[in-house]
């Protein structure tokens, strides 16, 4: 047959399974987002629309891939935790990596107009990603703590930096100089004394990043993302566990919710033992 | 500092460089495109709009990444050849794979309305990908021959199958039965005698797939993709080689062009020694 | 300089670090030992000299590489557990694998005459090896249980097989036939009723394999291997923990000892929490 | 069955095939051979017995593994070229690496007494190894050129260094100082003017290293290794190509021979096109 004499080239495709029963963390980052955010007029230091769009794309990933049990996002990056027992695509690295990054990108572009109704996309945004394996629960805890600590550090710096520029009239060069060598307490003090900003009162989204988990929604449904056309009960996957009573089951469906709370301390993890099961 | 005690988790990020001086072929495939094409009303056996959108996304990849010197597409898959000496991202596999698949996806979604003006995207399309290394020129030749032979085999089958269904009134089950065990000549004969279709006269795009290379455009610019808002001289990257005379240089810029010609025989490769350099 | 223009070839050496904080198990097997054991007249079903030589080589590996905390051997194979925190050779896979297999082989050949004084080596014995990573304690427990269960299964089969041949006068073909489809209890019964062999009374070395750990020796030193010139207090490495009293410290040095006891149940592991630390 | 519930641990054994149709170079190095050579009284700057033992072990590797078509050795290292089409052990990296390094080590220890009749082995010598892939002929040429250039550089340095110490009465510290910053011509001149040594007249083995290939022996058989009990026509494998005439075929069997000639220039390779086939 026509194709037969060429098909030996398939033997060059080497297997790439990931070690079983380890936690996978897939982290993706915006590719050249410094320029992308400038070109598309993102607000500084944080653009709420852009962050919500990231959250919506991440929530869609979790709706599509049940093995993703947790996601954490800040700025133009998102980290996804796949459960230890995950056998998605037989744990083939390239397949998992490319599929999830592609899906995230697709949602990001598709939902852009819902979050930026007045800002057309001038060129295609893209993301790169990698998968890191963690053998133990503590590593996963520390990974997400590392990202949330990074969120805090970056946000405090950026908030102070842009206050110096936008309210203090400094050039960006001057602002960098002003901040050189300062510690966290110094920046907090500077924000408060010079600009009247109480850092702790800023939106939790900016200070804590976004934490996505599946939850049985409370009576008041989570509207965080919904408002902008994101996740809703309707398009969220149904939890695999069937309702155990004949009572109305709507309430028992888990949906992806977006939280902005601490994931460094024990409370978050103690409340959700299934994440590290 | 806050993040320091957690940052050890970075040591779990293992290096993944690809062997130097080997040809990389990145192949991506539509994820669940059987359902996607049904949902979005793709014409059978070939949807010209969908194929042109694939070509446009591939051309954008080539405009963005100069190391991609050749691309070949059929149906919902595309293969990209990165030149042997490519040092993009220090040849880190995950970085190259995720970035290119993400960029392709982004363009696919972004340009969708230009190719499907009357068909809104109902859900996010996505692609998976993998990188295969080939050590020698012959392997690369045979890889692309394999894909083009596959295009022919699939298209002949699908063309006959849908003729039996659409013109012959068979059910899809009957059509599969009719074709069971037939060879190429039998299908050609069946197309001609029962449906008056001369297979060789069908559009080359369907029979040969799409071949993307960089070329100095002829006086009549390549309009294949342009027509639908795709590649044009304007957004194509300028060739690195500067013009050597003071004559008008516009003609000497290479642009990505879409061909539908044979890449199995020697001619194509003999004309473009730079592809395998 | 002379070598400079060629030294680019070093860039083809790719990194191969193993995932941090996972247990490494290196298993090595005799290469072509069916023929090797025949050529060198190994006793059937078990050759005590050959097993002791294996133990001596494994003990030497543990004396040389402190990261190896446990070894288990049967027949012509040995498995080594490297502790989770091991950073030997920066966890480079090829370096660890080749060095340990080479060292084991070297000791095997070097000490051969001490165990086979009347049997010269007719050709070089060799071993192949591989490293497998296990993320959690339970995996390590189950790995070693798997090998010890295998020891039992093989030994029971071989013991019955060779009784049929050596005492029962069957050909090897007949003996295979006789054993086809039998279960453990059937073989035990056959051994006892036909050959007067009480399987449970056979040497523990044959039934349980060899388990090597580091221990503070009891007043009566472990002589198992010593007798044949193997491990002794003299050439064993000193434990890193210094003596905590002024009493004579000789007793407190840990040495590698060879045990033949159960490692499937909890007791062995409960007594040695440091193995899985 | 007893082993069944544990056998899942096998799923952690990941595949490790090497890219097809690339040249493999396996390089092994003595582990801690600075101390080993001191302890066993190796002559400085070169110990002929030790080099011949290395050659004998390498020749045995070539006799055992027909896929090894070339070997190059200097000091305590050896590089083996496996032909591009090699499918040994399905190209599994760990299997190939461990088996060849183990076999080399085994021969080294087994034949030690033949080369060092008066020097018993005081402890087990060992080697580490790695496999590097090269996609093209030129890379392989350059790899071996790199090693032979290294041989020259090291040997010229060591010869001058030990002349300064042994004949010039310098301490090793002084000798290092004397040589600091010198170039090749300076060392040649120093050897000749101060010690009457014509570097070019030193044994080719020291200056060029050892090159092992398979050849149809000339009427006078290669005795280089034979003399010390190494390679001989008797234990060399028969070449796969059958004799093409009815003439006595003994002469046409290829055997491994040890050469000490230039492999940087074209001649060596032009004479042996099969090496890079």
Automatic annotation (TrEMBL), chains A, B, C, D:
Amino acids binding GTP: 29-34, 75-76
Positions bound to Mg(2+) 1: 29-30, 76
Cofactor note: Binds 2 magnesium ions per subunit.
EC number: 2.7.7.79
GO BP: any one term: tRNA modification
Protein origin, superkingdom: Eukaryota
Pfam families: Thg1, Thg1C
Catalytic activity annotation: a 5'-end ribonucleotide-tRNA(His) + GTP + ATP + H2O = a 5'-end phospho-guanosine-ribonucleotide-tRNA(His) + AMP + 2 diphosphate + H(+)
Protein's name according to its UniProt entry: tRNA(His) guanylyltransferase
Species of provenance: Auricularia subglabra (strain TFB-10046 / SS5) (White-rot fungus)
């Amino acid at each position: 047959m026509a194709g037969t004499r060429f098909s030996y080239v398939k033997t060059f495709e080497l297997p790439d399974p990931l070690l079983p029963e380890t936690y996978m963390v897939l982290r993706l980052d915006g590719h050249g987002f410094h320029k992308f955010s400038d070109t598309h007029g993102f607000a500084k230091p944080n653009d709420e629309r852009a962050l919500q769009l990231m959250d919506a794309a991440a929530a869609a990933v979790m709706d599509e891939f049940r093995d993703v049990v947790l996601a954490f996002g800040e700025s133009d990056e998102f980290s996804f935790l796949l459960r230890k027992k995950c056998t998605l695509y037989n744990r083939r690295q390239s397949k998992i990596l490319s599929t999830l990054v592609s899906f995230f990108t697709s949602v990001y572009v598709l939902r852009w107009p819902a979050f930026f109704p007045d800002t057309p996309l001038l060129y295609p945004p893209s993301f790169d990603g990698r998968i890191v394996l963690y053998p133990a629960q503590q590593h996963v805890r520390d990974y997400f703590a590392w990202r949330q600590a990074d969120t805090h550090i970056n946000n405090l710096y950026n908030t102070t930096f842009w206050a110096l520029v936008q309210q203090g009239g400094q050039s960006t060069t001057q602002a960098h100089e002003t901040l050189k060598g300062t510690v966290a307490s110094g920046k907090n003090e500077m924000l408060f004394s010079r600009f009247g900003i109480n850092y702790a009162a800023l939106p939790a989204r900016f200070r804590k990043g976004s934490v996505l988990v599946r939850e049985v929604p409370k009576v008041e449904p989570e509207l965080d993302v919904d408002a902008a056309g994101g996740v809703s009960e309707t398009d969220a996957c149904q939890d695999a566990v069937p309702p155990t009573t004949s009572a109305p089951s709507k309430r028992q469906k888990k949906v992806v919710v977006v939280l902005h709370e601490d994931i460094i301390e024990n409370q978050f993890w103690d409340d959700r033992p299934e994440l590290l099961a």
